[in-house]
Amino acid sequence: MLQNWFILLPEILLISYLVVSRFVESYRANKTARTFATLSQIFVLGVIICSVVFYNKSVFPKLWQNTSFTTLLKCLSYLIAFIWFYLSSKWFLNKNRPSYKFYSLCFGLLLALNFVASASSFAVLFISVLIVYILYYKLILWHWDYEKVKTVSALYLINGAFFILMLIGGILIIYNQCLSLNYEAVRTYYATAANINIYSFIAVAMILSCFLFLLALAPFHLWYVNFIANGVLPVCGFISLVPPLMYLCGLVNLIRLCFPAFSDFIIPMLNIFGFISLFVGVMSANYEVDIRKLFSFLAVYAMGFVLASINDLSNDSIIFLIIFMLSFLSSLLGVYTVFLGFKSKSEYLSNFSEIAGFSHLRPYMSAAMLIFVFSFMGLAPTIGFFADLPLIDELVSKSDWLRITALFIGMIFALNACLHIIRNIWFQSSINKFDRADKAIFVCLLLNVIFIFTILLNPDALVGRLLYVVGEIK
Q: How far apart are CA 154 and CA 83, in angstroms?
């Protein structure tokens, strides 16, 4: 019994933060944004340590199950959250805004995402996804100017309600056929081709559509893009950086542990939405004059790129997917860190005309942005090149020239959008004076730049370790 409590420590710590922060908010007289940032970092660090220690142990394996694979992706998400919580405190201190609600909502999301990533039952998946939807809505509304988020909150609420109903419908069809909500039992039932009919395919499509919406894939991306353009920076950064790996983990588990019999249906479905997202993302990015919105479209493009390039969900494919996501999120984290430097007279700027000539006043941050953009484009010698190359190489080995051509066309348009950013920051005249950035921002940028380059020193070790971890998915 005592051992079970230790195994549940990651979930207990996530809940404990909500309790402790509430006491601090209610009873501590002297509290600042740094108070809750520090508190959140302590608890996230504890969650990471406990997750690593009990990486392969589960108290309720029929409901959610921990493995090396789920622990790896969850810990990477927790680590990104740890860094972003620290950086977000700079925004709160600059704006002199209370941060209690932001950190509490984020911890609630981390708890729900933890179950999405490790779910082994549709009951747990539904409850956790429902909580994610609700907390997303609350984070979107967490704004001091309601008019800016009124439209996007309504758009999200309508779309969210629709996809929750889709998830419910899909689960009900599955339960009606299998008489079970457990992944293993569902997998066993559908292992026999005679048990698969048109309603089974409809159910799978309905359930997967929920993940496509959460991943902001086109054509379900409008809520995400509009929110990034109008939301407050800490929330935009958290939603863009932390959940994707959790969703990826939950999606891979769902397909490989529950729906392997539907792989020939699921993979083409992911490819189709991947190509739609790839082209919608890059085409839209080329017409944007707001850098935050531009990168939101590039994020849609990046998710589309990786899904469009998937041939199967073999161990090698999942490794390439993880490396790509690691490259994408590290670059995007760097970009959002630079966003904190686009500050003039305590206002955070995002329009191209406002940040023109940024390099003349902040050459170090501009150089870091250049590196992150290069990594985003998949150019050597950054991690982006190492991440894109295996995906393309796998398609070349299978002579899939049509898909390779489409991916390269998307990369060319993405390159053009990124060059627009570089040209504006480096080769335009400056019209604004920018506030001095916190030293912590420079330190985080430096560490991120070092990571982007040094991970290439021994890529074989990284791939070998990932192969061992992914090999645990049966």
A: 31
- Asked if 293 and 401 sit in the same domain, the reply is yes
Residues 400 and 467 in one domain: yes
Instruction: Specify whether 205 is located in the same domain as 299.
Output: no
Rounded-to-integer distance, Cα 390 and Cα 271, Å: 17
Separation in Å, CA 165 to CA 126, 128, 217, 218, 342: 10, 14, 18, 19, 40
Of the candidates 195, 106, 169, the residue with the CA atom closest to the CA atom of residue 142: 106
Strand partners, 348: 343
Cα(first)–Cα(last) distance of the chain, in Å? 28
Same domain? For 171 and 191 the reply is yes
pLDDT in 10s for each residue of the chain, 474 residues: 667 778 888 999 999 999 999 999 888 878 777 889 999 999 999 999 999 888 888 888 889 998 888 888 999 999 999 999 999 988 888 888 888 999 999 999 999 999 999 999 999 999 999 999 999 999 998 888 778 888 888 889 999 999 999 999 999 999 999 999 999 999 999 988 778 889 999 999 999 999 999 999 988 888 999 899 888 999 999 999 999 999 999 999 999 889 999 988 999 999 999 999 999 999 999 888 888 899 999 999 999 888 888 887 777 778 888 888 888 898 899 999 998 888 887 788 788 888 888 888 888 888 888 888 888 887 777 777 777 777 777 777 777 788 888 888 888 888 888 888 888 888 877 777 887 877 888 888 888 888 887 766 666 655 555 555 555 555
CA-CA distances (angstroms) from residue 214 to 185, 246, 300, 353? 26, 11, 11, 32
Q: 226, 241, 258: which is the final residue of a domain?
A: 258
For residue 407, what are the domain limits? 264-474
**Domains held by the chain: number:** 2
Which of 258, 286, 321 is where one domain is finished?
258
Distance CA 156, CA 151 (A): 9
Judgement on whether residues 206 and 323 belong to the same structural domain of the protein? no
| Angle at CA of residue 310, ends 306 and 312, nearest 5° | 150
Distance CA(62)–CA(183), nearest Å, equals 8
Range 447-458 burial, b when 16+ CB lie within 10 A, else e: ebbeebeebeee
Give the Å distances, CA to CA, from 83 to 80, 92, 446: 5, 15, 13
**Is there a single domain that holds both residue 126 and residue 103?**
yes
In DSSP notation, 35-61 reads: HHHHHHHHHHHHHHHHHHHTTT--S-T
The answer, as to whether pTM is greater than 0.85, is: yes
